[in-house]
Write a structure and sequence with these properties.
The protein contains 8 helices and 7 strands; from the N terminus they run βααβαβαβαββαβαα. Helix 1 packs across helix 2.
């Protein structure tokens, strides 16, 4: 079974996109994140044999929110307590239950992530233990595995720029085979938001990826006001 997991957070103002909120305000940052969630869950709702939203926090309000988002397309799984490494390990340990299973996990901060990257990740796991999609901030936007390996998520400085480097070191140290996808970008800051805006404009003009054209409108950028935090 091919399993796609996506880590998501209930979009409560003040609790999501906090770095972006420093420039755009809590309400606007939450609205931007809602647009990301709606775009990603809609575009990927038919990828893989099973799709899972790993939601946070583990509350009734959070579960109810994600039950209403593309109902029937995703199973819901509450993220466990602990740091990010514990959450990632928990996802793979919970969902990789058969020898033939392959699972990939993405975040919800890369709204333009190409569908073909996910499809390629599953193919890479046919012959590799781990697949990683490097993010331009030093982390990764995707990680996939054929079997749980908690040891590669320990002793990682999750808030720093060396997440990818430290993870690759642990993969090598445990003699696991690795496949690498093309780099892609997260949107966590105003600079990242400005990159996203230009990227969406370019994709639209070039006639590429029409399925994400509605993201531009949902972010409010087709109005007269051209401010980056609109």
């Amino acid at each position: 079974m091919d399993i796609l997991g996506m880590f998501v957070k209930q979009p409560v103002p003040g609790n999501v996109k906090t770095r972006l909120a420093a420039d755009c305000g809590d309400e606007r940052a939450a609205a931007i994140y809602i647009a990301f969630l709606e775009s990603l869950t809609s575009r990927f709702r038919d990828i893989a044999d099973r799709r899972v939203l790993g939601f946070f926090p583990n509350s009734e309000a959070s579960r109810n929110y994600f039950e209403r988002l593309n109902p029937g397309s995703y199973d819901l799984w509450p993220q466990p307590d602990g740091e990010l490494g514990e959450k990632i390990s928990g996802f793979f340990e919970t969902h990789l239950t058969e020898n033939s299973d392959r699972a990939i996990l993405i975040g919800s901060d890369s709204p333009t992530l190409p569908r073909e990257f996910l499809e390629r990740a599953f193919r890479e796991l046919e012959s590799n233990d781990v697949v990683i999609g490097p993010a331009t901030d030093g982390g990764y936007y995707l990680i996939g595995m054929r079997f749980p390996a908690r040891s590669i998520f320990t002793q990682i400085e999750w808030s720093g720029p060396q997440v990818l480097e430290q993870t690759v070191f642990l993969i090598q140290n445990h003699q696991l085979t690795l496949a690498v996808l093309p780099p892609w970008y997260d949107v966590d800051t105003l600079e990242g938001l400005q990159l996203l805006k230009g990227h969406l404009q370019a994709l639209k003009l070039a006639g590429i990826a029409p399925e994400i054209e509605n993201l531009y409108s949902s972010l409010g950028w087709d109005t007269a006001d051209e401010s980056g935090c609109l």
